[in-house]
Amino acid sequence: MNYSINTTKDYHIKHMNTLGWELTLCNALYREGTPIRKILERNDSFGCLLYDYLSLYVPMNDVKKVIEIGGGYGYLMKDFLDKNSAIEPMMIDISPFLLKKQEETLNGYKVLLRQEDFLETDPDLLSGFDLAIMNENLGDFPTIVDISQELFKATSPDILDAYAKEVMNLFERYGFSKPVGRFFNFNIGAVLAVEKLCTSGIPHIYIGEHSCEAQVPDTFKSFVHIVSSGNPEKISLMGHDEYTIKFSYIEQVAKTLGYTSIRGHFNDFIKINATEDLRFVMLSKGRMSDDGEMICQFVEDLFKYEYLILSRVRD
Hints:
There is one protein chain. The chain is an alpha/beta fold. The protein has ten helices and twelve strands. The strands form three sheets. It has a seven-stranded mixed β-sheet, sandwiched between helices. A three-stranded antiparallel β-sheet has the order 1-6-7. Strands 9-10 form a two-stranded antiparallel ribbon. The longest helix is centred in the last third of the chain and has 15 residues, at 290-304. The protein is globular, with a radius of gyration of 20 Å.
């Protein structure tokens, strides 16, 4: 079958040397005094806001062993450690550059750092963790691009290649709804990563990423406009491409493997003050200033990004 595999592995291992051009929401909120923080109901960092929000659904005071896959600059974990000094974190990252940044950010804390592709991580390593975190990086995992709907018409699995067979197996295993359109993209790496986490039995899992299914709540539709196709879409970045995530598939994997899920958009825990000034910035698309453009992108991302809080159902 004619399709391609989008992978960022080579880029992250060999070529990555900055996140400066890729304004993650976590990085955008890390430093005090930024224009973005001024539009929030609560002026705080991403990690602190997330920690307190997770506390509504996860017994964070009892969380000790935390594994973060793809930790960026380490800002989120530093916030978690500042909130709860009893946490014992492990950071797994495919990028040697980012692991070095995490080591610098988390200097003074007792942290284990491992450079490896999470899809190749020994499942036994995941035993005993209380919480797993994957924030703003699931789109880096491999995506199969432009798969034909003819895949579902194959009369015999023997005529399919290895990737096509794996896609068919995953659709059958988790009962995914068939995509609309002649061709579709499939977040195979994201599905396999979440499957690995859930199979490990980690009690609580947080996942956040750019979604291809996100919708703006009615209260914000007057000044926030986004379009979601329902099909993972390419995001072109410096040196590599990422793909948005079909969260309904990820959620179905977790539910099939015995997890309850809470799903929403980032504005659930990063709340903005919808002032007239902010509405003006959004409606003008931030054209009036550099700060306005940055704020506009940030607010739109609050609704483009979805999260899942997964909790294992006890026997």
